[in-house]
Amino acid sequence: MWENLTIGGFAKAVGVNVETIRFYQRKGLLPEPAKPYGSVRRYGGADVVRLKFVKSAQRLGFSLNEIADLLRLDDGAHCEEAGGLAEQKLKDVREKIADLVRIEAALSELVFACHSRQGNVSCPLIASLQDRASLTENRRASPWL
């Protein structure tokens, strides 16, 4: 089914563009098949499976470097190492979720303040961002803040 594909057919089979394939080849995530004299490179089922693996891992949040590590563990005998990589990724995701919850709470307060302001007071969102920017600048200027 997926044998003897040109790079265009390979890209279409996986749902990516040709430049994505070339990029992954430069990164070492996909092998570049030999080019027979006077012909074009051909891709097969193993290439399709490998690229689908890369795309699946990306959807789970793995970086290209992490995916390269997973691909090195591809023989199935390194489940503990792969599990360790997955545990680290899960920890990272949970930290990002906690950060997003904090951001959501801060933005929620600012949006509420914006909607409840009255009169000619300055915008609470702009004022808050300016205050934070000043604080950051002061910290850079003085090691004591």
Short description:
This protein is mostly helical.
**N- and C-termini, Cα separation:** 65 Å
Task: Please tell me what the overall shape is.
Answer: elongated
Summarize the helix and strand pattern as letters: HHHHHH
User: How many DSSP helices?
Assistant: 6
Low-pLDDT stretches are none
Mean pLDDT over all positions:
87
Description of the structure:
There is one protein chain. By secondary structure, the protein is mainly alpha-helical. The chain is 67% helix and 0% strand. The protein is built from six helices and no strands. The longest helix has 38 residues, at 79-116. The model has no long low-confidence stretch (mean pLDDT 87).
Topology:
Elements: H1 7-14, H2 18-26, H3 45-59, H4 64-72, H5 79-116, H6 124-141
